[in-house]
Amino acid sequence: MKPSVMLSGAVLSGPVLSGAVLSLLCLASPALAQPACTPNNGAVPPGANTTDPAAPFFIDTAGLDLSTVPPTRDPTNPRYVKATELPDGTLPAAGAEGNFIIGPTHRAAPETTAQGTTAKDGVPHGKLYSFTLSSADSVIYNPGLIRDDLPNCRNSSVNGAATAPDDRSNLVVTTSHPGVWKRTIDVYVPAQVAPGSEAPFIVFGDGGETGSYPGRDLFNTIDNLVAQRRIPPMIAIGIAAGGQDAQGSERGREYDAVSGAYAEWVEREVLPLVEKTSGARLTRNPDGRATMGISSSGAAAFTMAWFHPELYHRVLAYSPTMINQQWPHDPALRGGAWEYHGPWTGKPGPRLSVAVNAVTPTDEAAGTPLIAAAAPKPIRVWFEVGDRDLFYPVASLADGMHDWVLASEGMAKVLADKGYHYQFVFARNAVHVDRPTVAQTLPAALEWVWKGYPTP
């Protein structure tokens, strides 16, 4: 979303939320089309195309239990990938790859809980360092983005917005304007990281508040797994989101963008301060660098590695938002993150492809997903979705690209087709970023993601 920056001698670019666009946003009066306070939709949107697969923006409801909100999905749906269903309460074998179904019971793993890191157990605790960043001091995300929602009505500007008359996938949000955001960065350094030594690390989004979720589980889990020598002693860097959520927000601008901008911001503006604040030395080896996130930050975790595999090789995501939520709407990539695994669902038309350094015309067939169109990258991916994950939360976005489960199923298919090392977990009895499921799976997921990296 910002002009190119220089990293390791290479020019890195992404779509730019330019000063001109921000100026236009600033001119839009917050009083214009201020929506009513409406809850998330979570059901088939009114007027959706659910009958004609050949027509634009088709939503397939076959196999969905529509009596629940969101609908409950059956993992045996023929549109989904074939998966191995495991006995309730069990997880895939260590190192196993492919597609798995777990649940419906989700008991917390002992490595995740605080009880697992007591002095009695002999598990040493690390040190936590924190600092604050402001968008006013940023190069890549200055100015920040503020959306004027109604008081005490989270996401009112999004939930009440309409789509463009000629494009059901283009949500028009008029209440965003330049502003200033501050955020906290947490740096957790395990006791086993020797001072001055170069250490592997994991960057996780939606972190940055001491004791926050998922940071509180992650720090405990790292302590236990390092003590058990199941993962290397690694530093965890929790970065708070820029602010708010979804279209028109700073969080959405950063996490939902299909570009290298967020990874570039982390590399250029966050990691140097991590080293300065904590005294740690972060490895430059991409095999010793992992990304992690939940929901939109889960999509960002994959995007960081996808656009910059020279920086990150390992990805862990819960309920990743691999759907059409990029904003502003990009005519070069009209389906946003959905286009990693599936075509834009509108009428066929000229296709532009997004390269790392530019948006350029291509002779590819219209709608070729990004992962399918590119040579395999050295990325190892673990991700999860719940059977009651998000489903068309914005009633006006009946675009065929807002089913979180179908998006994860699409990711599993294209990753398998291209020969990636991945593990996909479909969790029964699980909502969006389901906390019991995270507590059950996080230790095994971390161990899987770090497979192959030396553990002292």
Supply database-style keywords:
single chain; 456 residues; Rossmann fold; alpha/beta
Structural category: alpha/beta
Estimate the helix proportion, in percent.
10-25%
Strand count, sense and barrel status of the largest sheet are:
10 strands, mixed
Provide a count of the helices: 9
Question: How would you state the average pLDDT, rounded?
Answer: 87
Give the tally of β-strands. 22
Give the terminus-to-terminus CA distance: 40 Å
Question: Can you characterise this structure?
Answer:
With 456 residues, the chain is an alpha/beta fold. The protein has one domain (5-449): 3-Layer(aba) Sandwich (Rossmann fold). Helices cover 21% and strands 22% of the residues. It has nine helices and 22 strands. It has helices spanning 19-27, 156-159, 215-227, 250-255, 261-278, 296-307, 370-373, 404-417, 435-449; strands at residues 5-7, 10-12, 64-65, 72-73, 84-85, 98-102, 127-134, 144-147, 162-164, 167-172, 176-179, 182-189, 198-199, 201-205, 235-239, 281-282, 289-294, 314-318, 352-354, 359-361, 380-388, 421-431. A ten-stranded mixed β-sheet has the order 5-6-22-21-18-17-14-15-12-7, with helices on both faces. The protein has a two-stranded antiparallel ribbon with strand order 1-2. The protein is globular, with a radius of gyration of 21 Å.
